[in-house]
Write a structure and sequence with these properties.
heterodimer; A: 446 residues; B: 2 domains; 10-stranded mixed beta sheet; two-stranded antiparallel sheet; 12 strands
């Protein structure tokens, strides 16, 4: 192309021009200008891309980082044996714990002589949901009953947002969840150092909570859910994908059938993921009677989605191994299988692994198929206790958990969703970096 | 070779694991309006009992009841949440799949509120007829049924703001839509005389009732198939937009939403409990009786859900915005004795 254009312009301008090559003819000017313009367009495209990237990263960090800090209330509380027995005898035990706690703390704080009027209701609105934490603590440490214990408990989500500056006084409307007057107490407590902010480990290690307890919600259980799903995907799609591509690439006869399979694999790679979700619901849950919301089913569905990616990348890397390697192996008397497994496959491995990791990263961020197999909602509510339970007990996955949080009415959950995005991005970034390192380190060029 | 062995082992693990599986947690699915309450109870149930917390999925009343009616067995759900009562055809579909014994549980009431952007115009004079005039395809103008000519709220009610009509209403798969149709649109249809005009125009009464529920399709009425968060996002982007929300959702977002009164009454748990606020609906869940005693914790979860401590006026559900049911004691008795729907 470029040769043809130079020839043509050269042919045109040569007879007319008398000047030297150093002075620009009008046509040459035009061509240089076109090139300069093209470079500008390219640069502009890159700048626009960068601006979007910066915008995305900044907004994710700005919205998500608050999820990692938490407003905590440091208070001393003593639970007597009688209170413990009475609370345990009730239907709603956690509410009894909350009541004892709120009464005790109200008294303690009133004795400290803060300059603010408040009562038990105020304390209840300022504190997050404490009953569950208290009950777990005293059931695990019965020796602490009757002794003063220093607790660090999370504050209510609106107090958290107020202290982090996302909620201002004039935005607060007196309501069931917070009253403007409560903020005076919050200010006084913050001044006295009773309320402060701390890194929220619970967000990383915790489980999902009910909609009235955003302070206690964590992404930990769904990270484990994602992990089990990825394990299923890796254990199934890597061997199946590699075996299929080796057969297709090295052993299969080239005929209409293998062509058909090839076309189908390329098509499968382009099928929208929600289709695999519907397939998973119909085949794995309704037909094969696998349990609902189970990471095993999620893993199987994502395996279907990842297989074509792995097959395509594996075939590409097998193809890139030069035929001379195979010929040399066959020439010294190796069987076809020996030539493949001893020579071709090891050389293709970096490419295969890169493809697998990228396929896994894609599967890790996938939400659509999980919607249909029951992973959205209040699902990731406890940690599995072992391998079988990890595969079969209901659990969510990171992207599904993010989706669930984003749909809840309390804005604190929205913040959690952004925080979850940061965690998900860290995982994806790590996986992609590993893929790049593998490729850089082991890739051979011929 | 080792690769093949690996595949074979994985498949074997998967197979043995499924055959030995027995579900030990309760599975719940359905209405996104009931979901918040169900998740609160599920978390509290896990905190207070030695059973694992139930799994609560979303999806809408109709979708939940459809899954409920898939059959009896461990891989079907135990409880369907619904923001409307189960329909005859759903009971029939259930029976066909072998789900014959269903326990109906009413957990309380939820208010349906109309709210607009906090910086937008205030709607303080709504009557059901106004919503009908704004959203119906055919309305009464000067005693005749004509194609809806209105583009602004003030066109038909001078007390309403001079703002473009734009309403975000729940999509047809939501139970909220049915209540919205029955208590607002149908009421408005009758009040404006449109229904009588339709019957006078030769329609049968049933046809006229159906025709009343239609909404205009010129883009001024938008169906929201997602949940309230989506409605909120739409409202945030449209100053004049008005949306339909649950009371608890509105109370969680008072810094972004301004509530509209209906027939002069502001929606609160008190006005709804007293029956003064006209638009409210009961919330239900349905239990598969065949699963009681098979799925551990199902009976306990149902009892716990409607106990006074949880669903009563001072419980956590009321604290979140549920209007508690004055007849809770009767419901508790019915659940305790596993009274199924005829």
């Amino acid at each position: 192309m470029s040769d043809a254009t130079t020839d043509m312009s050269g042919g045109k301008s040569a007879p007319a021009a008398h000047g030297s090559l150093l002075s620009e003819s009008p046509l040459m000017k035009k061509r240089n200008a076109a090139e300069a313009r093209f470079k500008m367009y390219g640069l502009l495209a890159i700048v626009i891309g960068l601006v979007f990237l910066i915008f995305l990263v900044v907004s994710i960090l700005r919205n998500g980082l608050p999820a990692f800090t938490q407003t905590v209330v440091n208070v001393e509380f003593t639970l007597t044996q009688e209170q413990f027995d009475e609370a345990e005898s009730k239907m709603l035990k956690t509410a009894a714990y909350t009541e004892y706690f709120v009464n005790d703390v109200t008294q303690t704080l009133q004795q400290r002589g803060l300059d603010v009027d408040f009562d038990g209701d105020t304390i209840e609105r300022v504190m997050g949901k404490v009953g569950g934490d208290l009950r777990t603590f005293y059931r695990e440490n019965p020796d602490q009953i009757g002794q003063p214990v220093e607790f660090e408990l999370s504050a209510a989500s609106r107090v958290d947002r107020y202290l982090q500056g996302q909620l201002t006084r004039d935005m607060v409307v007196d309501g069931r969840f917070l009253e403007v007057a409560d903020l005076d107490l919050v200010d006084a407590l913050a001044e006295a150092g009773i309320i402060g902010s701390a890194f929220d480990w619970n967000f990383i290690t915790g489980t999902d909570t009910g909609v009235d307890n955003p302070g206690g919600a964590g992404i930990g259980a769904s990270v484990i859910g994602s992990f089990f799903m990825m394990m299923v995907v890796l254990l199934l799609s890597l061997p199946i994908g590699v075996a299929a591509s080796i057969y297709l690439e090295e052993f299969a006869p080239k005929n209409r059938w293998t062509d058909l399979i090839e076309v189908n694999i390329s098509n499968l790679a382009a099928v929208p993921s929600i289709v695999f979700g519907i397939l998973g619901l119909a085949v794995f849950i309704q037909f094969a009677h696998l349990p609902q919301s189970a990471p095993l089913v999620g893993g199987l569905v994502l395996t279907l989605m990842t297989l074509p990616t792995i097959v395509i990348s594996t075939r590409a890397s097998l193809k890139s191994v030069p035929p001379s390697i195979r010929d040399a192996a066959l020439g010294v008397g190796a069987s076809k299988m020996q030539s493949v497994f001893h020579h071709v496959l090891p050389l293709a491995m970096p490419g295969i692994l890169t493809g697998t990791i990228i396929g896994l990263a894609q599967a890790l961020g996938e939400t659509a198929p999980l919607l249909l197999i029951g992973m959205v909602g209040y699902v990731a509510r406890e940690y599995p206790d072992g391998l079988v339970s990890g595969l079969l007990d209901p659990n969510s996955a990171m992207p599904a958990q993010i989706y669930t949080w984003a749909a809840r009415s309390d804005e604190a959950f929205f913040e959690k969703a952004w925080g979850g995005i940061i965690i998900l991005m860290i995982f994806l970034l790590t996986m992609n970096i590993i893929a790049i390192i593998l490729r850089r380190k082991f890739e051979r060029r011929w | 070779m080792s690769l093949m062995k690996l595949t074979a082992t994985t498949a074997a693990i998967a197979l043995t694991a499924t055959t030995s599986f027995a579900r030990d947690n309760v599975q719940v699915a359905g209405s996104s309006t009931v979901l918040p309450y169900a998740s609160i109870v599920a978390e509290a149930f896990g905190d207070n009992f030695d059973f694992p917390a139930p799994v609560v999925e979303s999806g809408g009343s109709s979708a939940g009841l459809a899954r409920f009616c898939e059959g009896v067995g461990e891989n079907t759900i135990d409880i369907a949440n619904a923001s409307r009562a189960i329909r005859e055809n759903e009971i029939a579909a259930c029976a066909e799949a072998g789900v014959t014994d269903i326990i109906e549980v009413r957990i309380g009431y939820d208010g349906i509120v109309f709210a607009s952007q906090i910086d937008g115009p205030a709607f303080t004079a709504f009557e059901p007829s106004d919503i009908f005039n704004a959203l119906a395809p055919m309305v009464m103008v000067d005693g005749a049924l004509v194609e809806n000519p209105y583009t602004k709220w003030s066109d038909f009610n001078a007390d309403l703001p001079d703002a473009d009509i734009l309403a975000f209403i729940p999509g047809t798969k939501h139970g909220t839509r049915e209540v919205f149709e029955e208590q607002v649109i149908a009421a408005g249809c009758e009040a404006t005389g449109a229904m009588d005009a339709m019957i006078a125009g030769g329609m049968s009464e049933d046809d006229a009732e159906d025709a009343c529920l239609a909404v205009r399709t010129d883009g001024r009425s938008v169906d929201i198939d997602g949940d309230y968060t989506e409605t909120l996002a739409r409202i945030a982007a449209n100053t004049n937009g008005i949306g339909v929300f649950g009371l608890a959702f509105y109370e969680n977002n008072t810094d972004k939403l301004k509530v509209a009164t209906m027939s002069g009454v502001e929606p609160t748990t008190e006005t709804i409990a007293a029956g003064v606020y006209p638009v409210s609906r009961p919330l239900y869940f349905y239990i598969k009786a065949a699963h009681i005693g098979v799925i551990p914790g199902l009976q306990e979860f149902a009892n716990f859900f409607i106990s006074d401590e949880v669903a009563g006026p001072s419980g956590p559900l009321a604290a979140y915005g549920l209007v508690s049911d004055p007849e809770l004691a009767a419901t508790q008795q019915a659940v305790m004795n596993n009274v199924t729907m005829n």
